[in-house]
């Protein structure tokens, strides 16, 4: 986990004994997901959030310096400056300085963490943290630059991918398949002793999930065995997935799988089930499993549970089944936002989150595109079933579907043929389906989905004629019609809060005229640190009515997590059927104590539970005990170890969290001195470098060998791994490339190389010659072309004409002003400069341009300023060479910028009002005058560096640097 650097003065007595709890939060702004996971810490009643990461996500111009415990920048506009000093517990906003509680801030190697309450006071945002769904919702109190951009762009166009993340277009890395790779293994050892009525029973259980490459395919193996029945249960699957659709040649498949697989469900015909078989599909991997429904399923270790959230509301909860799997069947999709979260909770306190987004419009097949899905399956009872489904895009707003299904119904094999149409018309979706069964039975369904205000409305009518299937079983009084209505949305509460509400109603009318009606309603809320979800289910059949309810409440009290659940019935005999309460308290980093009590009123009996867990580090450990007031006593111990091989260093990796279901990357960074892209023996590795995953920071850092292991990568989708440039020691280092795109595979580790080259900067000034006077001109676009005449770098001149082209690697280049812009502005094309960059990091300065109006010619290499203009300035008013010569040679100064024009540097000093702290010196470069602005005189390098980090953003645009006065004085003597 993250190693924290906490200044002693940042902890006060109230929290000296309080343990921090690490969290990963999803960040939302309006309807956009900005990040799948940013780190945060729970400290007592406070949540501490990373200031730098949050500022980057919200496009606020604030940068943090964790090593110095400072931050600086501005909020929205430059006149609203911001500076933070944790050592002095001082923050300055728009010129107003105030102190804050030192316990509400701490530093960590890659960021500064600030309490939510302080961030809301300092920044123009309201922050809403939902602890139950691990989400952070940002409400902007002023329009952020990001919001203006998001308003112009259509975000979230790809299902299953975060909408707020901009594609950086990293080069794609194709990870090769191997005949046999060392698998990653998630394994659990559990033993239990149970004593009741004088008898004692013991049991032991071992489960393992292995994932890796086998025979050139992805493979997974689930193994389970216990003492009572030592014969192991085994499940094996092989296959491949490719989001680009390049599998099996002309079939253009995106996935195929064989072995132990789940059969797909088909609306109104058959439900999914486990068994053996083969499946092949070219459907997008992140597309819903059907037009308006989605199935979530996967592996789940024993003792784990999974919660399903839909649009921030808890809609489902499951434990691992006997085969170590979970399955949420046919989750409906509404018109508009469909955001799902799967939150996995381990028995040892582990937590893992998966996010999915399914805009309904993405279910439409594009015009002319043909999609198919084929499955041949035999369930656990040996009954066969076949499913073939096809979709064709007819136009932008119309698609057709067809299918053939062979499935068992009441131990009889039946066949079905399906036809369907889907269309989007104005602000609604309309669907029609027809199913013909073997023997003449049929089913017709008409559905409509739309939004009314902020409420999603889904309505359908199904008419059956002598139709039977696994969904509509044969009955002496069969269903004739089924009407369904679903409403989901949010009820506003106050200015910034809302209550997610969902209501579903179903009415079945049978041939005899009897109607069966069911209504379920769910409301969720999160307020004052408490999450509540209440669900009611009402069923009526004839004269019989029954209402069941469940109320779930969770709350944090300082560092404790409290959960309770109440099951009850309403009606003529209202009663409480069950009540449960649990409390979790952290005891240290990764250690936790759990206490619980549950009472069932029908028995009646009460169960008391207690446990101790370790959930971080190389292994997870749990010890638990329970006592039932009937006399039963149980004691259990569970050990969890996830393990795998790090391929580059040939080391074993161990983790207390599962790794087999996720991907990994072994990344090596080195300084590529000869620019050949290969790490040669003499080239040093780079340590301490960090990375981003899909734009968010990752905790991995390169070690002394320049190697970092990036774990828990999502699978079945494209993932961008980039270099976190803020973690590189030298600002002149540039990775080539700066990121890689890949599709991680379960249980495999991709070997990635990031050669780092030493770059240089090219700077100069663009002047406009008008009426014999030269002046710097801003907003001109400059282009850097390589030897293939490709534009490889771009920049824009500043207000004074000064420009910088950063991070230029070794090579031959041509630098020019954009010809298109020159023609558009009616300026003379003065040509360009041919440059040779050696790759030793030396700056190339003074590459000046002079442009003119009306086609008049000028020498772009001439002196940029005549003496008449220079004479208009008072020479004695500025600190110049004489002041620089008087400074001690062993002192330090800060060079702010440099230019070939004396007028430009004087204007720069005057504009920033730094005449009394800065000066300029004249030297020569390539035979031309060169003027450097230097700031202050400092006795030590640390003092100069600290001052540099406190400078305003306008003074750091040209990337100032610290230099010795003896260097300045030596340059003056030349």
Automatic annotation (TrEMBL):
Domain SPOR: 886-964
GO molecular function annotations of the record: peptidoglycan binding
A Pfam family recorded for this sequence: SPOR
Region Disordered: start-end pairs: 267-286
Record-linked PROSITE patterns: SPOR
Protein name: SPOR domain-containing protein
